[in-house]
Amino acid sequence: MMRGMVKHLRKLQFDAHKNIKLEKKRWEFTDHRIFGYLHWFLTIFEFCIALFIIISVVATLINFITGMLLPTIIASLPFYFPGPSGPAQIDRDCRFMTEIVPYTIKSFRPKWFGLFGEPTPIIYHTPRSRKGHNITVIPIDRRDVELRYWVDGDRVDISGLEPFKYNRSVDCGEDVAKCLDLGFLGVTIAVPPGTSGSHTFKAEIVQQENETFVWGDRRRRRVKMKVDQCV
Predict the structure, then answer these.
(1) Contact 133, 225 (CB under 8 A)
(2) Residues 6+ apart with CB under 8 A from 158
(3) Across residues 38-67, what is the average pLDDT?
(4) Which residues of 152-161 are buried (b: 16+ CB within 10 A; e: fewer)?
(5) Residue 18 has pLDDT above 70, yes or no
(6) Extents of the domains making up the chain
(7) pTM > 0.70
(8) For residue 219, which of 103, 72, 60, 101 has the smallest C-alpha distance?
(9) In Å, how far from its chain's centre is CA 210?
(10) pLDDT for 66
(11) How many CB atoms lie within 10 A of CB 199?
(12) Which end of the chain is more exposed for a tag (fewer CB within 10 A), N or C?
C-alpha cells in the first residue's frame, strides 16, 4: 500500500512539473504573439505618418506653383503687341477690352500644407504692359466669406457696394449668373496702366481681429476670376 501511495505521489509530481512546462511555453508563445501584433501596429502607424507628410508636401507644392510661382513667371515674360515702333499709345479711358484670362476658379486654402491655419490670399500679377486691366472676382459655392482687395499694396475702396450678407445656407455652385442673382458680391477692379511693368493684385478673406478662421467641412473657399485688358 505504501508503494502504491509513493508511486501515486511521484505521478502527481511528474504531472505538475509537466503542466508547469506547458504553461510556461504557452505564456512564452502568447508574449511572442503580442510583440508581433505591436510590431505590425507600429509599422502601419509609421507608414500612415509618412504618407500624411508626403501628401501634405505635395499639396503645398501644388498650391505654391499654381497660386504664386506660375503667375510670377507669366508676369515676368515680355508682353508683345502689334503696332508701329516707338512709345505705345495708352487708352486711359479703357473703352474697349479684350479678355486675356477667361473665368478661372481660384481658391483660398489653409496656410499650413493646405490642411490647417489661416487662409492664404489669392495673388495675380498682370502681364508686363503699358495697358490697363480689369480684374473681375465673383465668389462661388456658399455665401460665407467677405473679401477685400489690394493693388500694389493699396487697399481698393469698395464701400459703394451693398453690405455683405452672411448666409452659408445659400449655395450657387459654380454658376456665375446664379451667384450674382443670389446676392454674392462680385467686383471688377480697374488696374491702371503703368510704366514700371506688372501690377500685383491681391484678394483676401476679411477676418475679425484676433479671430481664428473656421474652415468647417471644407478646406477651401473658391472664387471665379477673369482678366480683361485694354485694347
Answers:
(1) no
(2) 148, 149, 187
(3) 76
(4) eeeebeeeee
(5) no
(6) 31-79, 97-208+215-230
(7) no
(8) 60
(9) 22
(10) 55
(11) 21
(12) N
Per-residue pLDDT, 82: 34
**The predicted structure's pLDDT at residue 81:** 35
Write down the pLDDT at residue 86.
32
Q: Which CATH architecture has domain 97-208+215-230?
A: Sandwich (2.60)
d(CA 12, CA 9): 5
Cell output for 212? 481664428
Single-letter amino acid, residue 154: D
CA–CA distance, 135 with 215 (Å, rounded to integer): 26
| H/E stretch holding 87 | none
Q: Which three cell numbers stand for residue 100?
A: 486675356
97: burial class by Cβ within 10 Å (0-12, 13-18, 19+)? middle
Note the pLDDT of residue 212.
Answer: 83
C-beta neighbour count of 219 within 10 angstroms: 15
CB 100 within 8 A of CB 227: yes
- pLDDT, position 15: 53
Read off the C-alpha cell for 77. Answer: 515674360
Residue 45 has pLDDT above 50, yes or no: yes
